[in-house]
Amino acid sequence: MKYFLQRLGFYVFTAWAAITLNFFIPRLIPGDPVQALITKYQGQLSSQAIESLYVLFGLDENGSLWSDYVDYWKQLFGGDLGLSFAFFPTPVSEVLGDSILWTLMLVGVTTILSFAIGTGLGVLAGWRRGSWTDGLLPVTTFLSSVPYFWLGIIAIYLFTGPDSFFPSGGGAEVGLVPAWDVYFIPSAIQHSLLPALTILVSSVSGWILSMRNMMVTVASEDYITVAHAKGLPERRVALSYAARNALLPNVSGFALSLGFIVGGTFLVEIVFSYPGIGFQLFQALGANDYPLMQGIFLIITISVLVANLLADIAYLLLDPRTRKEG
Amino acid sequence: MTEPVLEIRNLNVEYGLGDQAVRAVRDVNLTLHRGEVLGLAGESGSGKSTLAYGMTRLLAPPGVISGGQVIYHPEQGDPYDVLELSDAGLRRFRWAETAIVFQGAMNSLNPVHKISTQLTDVLEAHEPRMSESSRLARAREMLKLVGIAPDRMDAYPHQLSGGMRQRVMIGMALILQPQVVIMDEPTTALDVVMQRQILGQLIELRERLGFSVIFITHDLSLLVEFSNRIAIMYGGRIVEEAPAASIYRDALHPYSQGLLGSFPALRGPRRELSGIPGSPPDLKGMPAGCSFHPRCPKAFDPCGANIPVLGRPATPDGGARSVACWLHPTAEPVG
């Protein structure tokens, strides 16, 4: 428990540091959001409009950096991340709220699936090493070294077209309103199949490889020989003795990849014009939309930290050696 | 001599296949009698552990048994060949009839499961009809037997010391009341005090429960103290086999004499410790004839030419021992 609290404290500190950096970086960039908007509207704004924009962004009162910083925290806890430029005047939190669900559904589900399938196959390949399964290894090595987005481009080239079942982009049929109904859900699933398969194919091999290698390492441990000598059923030796121990290093890898759900697959979303966080960030970059970028960075930071915390908890549950007595 | 419980006949174990194969165990004949402690000694690489893994069919690839028989005599019923058993039959045989205590006291327990889980899963596999509570009761009983407080049941291996872990392993080995317990250097990783304690306890348990022990070690002094009979291995072969006292008093094979000369006696006049010159033979390129002759101080003409057979020597106690050496040409080969 003490260990857990220590870790928690560490994560709170890291989050504070990251958010503080997030506060300072945009203020170190020359120019301000109003200037950016003025450029965007190419001088079509009247001086009153500019004045009111300054008021709107809270830039009229020249408070100290410290009071800005305190206000920033207050806003954060109120869920207020400012207004997006690109989707002006929609609040950033609303823009993010829309897109994060898309990303979580697509990348979250595929990451978990990929880990489950890859680990399962890896256990099998590691346990039956030396058999035909070893022939699959070069294929998986090849697939794991292929970048996601390239695979996506190839998939679009091969499988989409005017008569194809697979749409080439977007999150759902244009004109459908996101809702839990029979029109939207099937269309959303249909649109997600190709990006999901792309991510799955290129990420599952990594899990297979690492799990297989850990299985081979663990299989030569003394306690595996003991388990055989005890006359335990093959399944129990393979799962409860070998796989159970081989899984441990992979858990931290899995947590890391959970953290990268939000930030790791920009390119797939861009290739498939999928309306997730990555696509949003791409647009934000193009539009110099600092508040939106700040919001996305915040979400990426928090998701990486939460994923690490989950990994720590998983370790506590899975590996008794990390538990401290008392 | 009492009846045999485990007979090893002409066992050959090789690592690898074809011409590249290394013969680690060569034509070994060995009989374990009911209730005795049979010591197996030899240098590193002499094939003693391979012999143990071979007779229990636990060899890791590329090890293969290339010939021989391992006849097991169950308490009731007809003897059978362990090497002929089906996979399911082998699983039933393992631990229930022959249990093993392994070299690595530190790594023999699965680090992620509690001691109780690892004790009861044997029972679960071999006696599926046993109830959960009686399994736990049996596991507790075994811990008590080896001198570990039953409240350590819920401990994980990393919370136990090396000595305690090896005790747990011994308790685990006895949980199904096997007839044969193979000890593969069980105390090598432990300090001398702990060694003695654990072995003493084991011998005491053997007297109470009546199982037989094959005790493998490179420490001949331990064997002299704890075993009834000793077999000495060299280069994959058994070169001498005799009651422990006979080996200690007058070993016949020069290699046995060398081993005995390499540890100090507790009593008697001081003497120079000699050791054996040279190093163990390369199993890939064994010398012709007796494999020990290049290192043997007493080698003479026939040693380099022909392999000596294990046979009864022409000594007064020759009926109870055997040796493979040209110094003691045999009248009656065994095995």
From TrEMBL, chain A:
Protein name, UniProt field: Peptide ABC transporter permease
Keywords of this entry: Membrane, Transmembrane, Transmembrane helix, Transport
Domain ABC transmembrane type-1: 100-311
Top-rank taxon, per record: Bacteria
Location (main, coarse): membrane
GO biological process: transmembrane transport
Entry's localization field: Cell membrane; Membrane
TM segment ranges: 7-25, 100-124, 136-159, 188-209, 254-275, 295-318
Key word Transmembrane present: yes
Membrane topology (UniProt): Multi-pass membrane protein
Family (UniProt): Belongs to the binding-protein-dependent transport system permease family.
Lineage: Bacteria, Bacillati, Actinomycetota, Actinomycetes, Micromonosporales
One Pfam short name: BPD_transp_1
GO cellular component, one term: plasma membrane
InterPro entries: MetI-like, MetI-like_sf
Keyword Transport set for record: yes
TrEMBL record, chain B:
Molecular-function GO term, any one: ATP hydrolysis activity
Keyword Electron transport annotated: no
Residue stretches making up the ABC transporter domain: 8-260
Pfam families associated with the record: ABC_tran, oligo_HPY
CDD domains: ABC_NikE_OppD_transporters (cd03257)
UniProt keywords, alphabetically: ATP-binding, Nucleotide-binding, Transport
InterPro entries cross-referenced by the UniProt entry: AAA+_ATPase (IPR003593), ABC_transporter-like_ATP-bd (IPR003439), ABC_transporter-like_CS (IPR017871), Oligopep_ABC_C (IPR013563), P-loop_NTPase (IPR027417)
Gene Ontology BP term (one): peptide transport
PROSITE patterns assigned to the protein according to its UniProt record, in alphabetical order: ABC_TRANSPORTER_1 (PS00211), ABC_TRANSPORTER_2 (PS50893)
SMART domains named in the record: AAA
Presence of the UniProt keyword Glycoprotein in the record: no
Family membership noted in the UniProt record: Belongs to the ABC transporter superfamily.
Protein known as: Peptide ABC transporter ATPase
